[in-house]
Write a structure and sequence with these properties.
Number of helices: 13
Radius of gyration: 26 Å
Shape: elongated
Order of helices and strands: EHEEHEHEHEEEEEHEHEHHEHEHHHHE
Helix content: 25-40%
Bound molecules: adenosine-5'-triphosphate, magnesium ion
Distance between the termini: 26 Å
Strand content: 15-25%
Structural class: alpha/beta
Length: 392
């Protein structure tokens, strides 16, 4: 029996004149995400993208799991395909439905007839299908008000589809529909979550990671690349720029007042990140900051960091508690990697008494003790680019 995956759109439906542009992006992303799972034919009809396995070898379980992580899909279902006649529909119900009803006590059938040429009306289709289900699964009961499962029979253009419940999709907007953003990706819990949240709104993510070798280790960098790789299940392939801040940190430590070390470092990070962003057509920076989480994330400290930005800085975790961030990190599978204990460059040369209510003027006095531009350029000359491809 043939199975097919139907992907139903979310917000794209609201896009009016631009709708076909969004649909095109979504279909392209779906094709790309299905590549590791065998040959699929992907096409659109009636606000739905169909993913149809072309040969026997296609891994439909894997494909279904992968599609649950594609932004722009609000719901998906695995359907058995029947020919558009009642005999074929009932025969597919007999072989398909019993496996889908394990552990289920009550059900109802909803038929939907988009193809009005089909000779029976929806209530008639539902009655016949319901009767067939009761005969192959006599332990089931019909419950119209509050069933455990709603079995759907959809008579569509391309055939009749039968499924027992749909799964919620990742929602959001198709990747690439809202341009590109540069994520400042540390090895921590928050920044992968921040990247996920902007990706969900259709932003294609590139990332920059700052290292401080030999104060930070090669394994700390590998951990970040591993995080990026996990994120590709949602973001698609990701380019990661790795930049060394060693010299900047040493110069700050040698020339500036200790209380300002972290703030100065963060301004360097923002400047390096936005120069790489500008070069790579990214229109915003993304960080995992959350108000008050650490000394450099007080409103005043964020103000000092922000004042160097020439592009919007998105901080989707800004109003979230750590627990809420952790919940998302677990959902997207980055948590376990994030908590591996490797040092971050922010934890090197940390001041004993960081300024929590810094004044920009005083920070600038410290910053002027350094050749800011030369240090940024020197750091950027260390840039290494790593392409993380989407895999399974
Ligand atoms: P995270 O859990 O994401 O590491 P954090 O709570 O540890 O965040 P900070 O270390 O102050 O907070 O960093 C705040 C944000 O700055 C991070 O979320 C990230 O966006 C960025 N950042 C920090 N360290 C780095 C780094 N080494 N490379 C790139 N970005 C960084
Ligand atoms: Mg961190």
């Amino acid at each position: 029996m043939k199975e097919i995956i139907l992907c139903k759109y979310g917000e794209i439906v609201l896009k009016g004149a631009n709708r076909s542009y969004f649909e095109g992006l979504l279909s392209r992303e779906i094709k790309y995400r299905l590549r590791p799972y065998g040959k699929f034919s992907v096409y659109r009809m009636q606000s739905t993208v169909y993913a149809e396995p072309v040969d026997e070898d296609a891994d439909i379980d894997g494909a279904f799991d992968a599609l649950k992580k594609v932004f722009g899909i609000s719901a998906l279902c695995r359907c058995a395909v029947a020919e558009k006649n009642m005999e074929s529909i009932l025969s597919v119900i007999r072989s398909y439905i019993p496996n889908e009803m394990v552990g289920i006590k009550t059900f109802k059938v909803e038929a939907k007839r988009s193809d009005k040429a089909f000779p029976l009306k929806s209530p008639e289709i539902s009655a016949l299908a319901g009767g067939e289900i009761l005969s192959v699964c006599p332990y089931l009961k019909v419950n119209v008000k509050d069933p455990d499962v709603v079995v759907k029979v959809e008579i569509r253009e391309g055939g009749a589809y039968i499924h027992a419940g749909q799964t919620k999709g990742a929602c959001g907007m198709p990747i690439g529909s809202n341009g590109k953003g540069m994520l400042l990706l540390s090895g921590g819990i928050d920044s992968p979550v921040a990247g996920y949240m902007l990706a969900k709104r259709g932003v294609k993510i590139e990332a920059v990671h700052f290292e401080s070798f030999p104060y930070t280790s090669e394994r700390a960098k590998e951990k970040v690349l591993e995080l990026a790789s996990i994120m590709t299940a949602y973001t698609g392939s990701m380019r990661v720029h790795v930049v060394s801040l060693t010299k900047i940190q040493e110069e700050i430590a040698r020339n500036c007042e200790e209380d300002y070390f972290t703030l100065l470092l963060r301004r360097f990070m923002m400047e390096c990140a936005q120069r790489i962003a500008e070069k790579n057509d990214c229109k915003a920076l993304i960080t995992g900051e959350s108000v008050g989480q650490v000394a450099s994330q007080t409103i005043q400290a964020i103000g000092v960091t922000d004042s160097i930005a020439r592009m919007p800085v998105f901080r989707p975790c800004i109003g979230m508690d750590k627990e809420e961030i952790v919940e998302i990190a677990r959902k997207i599978d980055t948590f376990e990697t994030s908590i591996l204990p490797f040092e971050d460059c922010c934890t090197v040369f940390t001041p004993r008494h960081p300024k929590t209510k810094p004044e920009l003027e005083k920070v600038l006095v410290e910053e002027r003790k350094l050749d800011f531009n030369a240090l940024v350029e020197d750091a950027l000359s260390s840039e290494e680019i790593i392409n993380i491809s989407y895999g399974r």
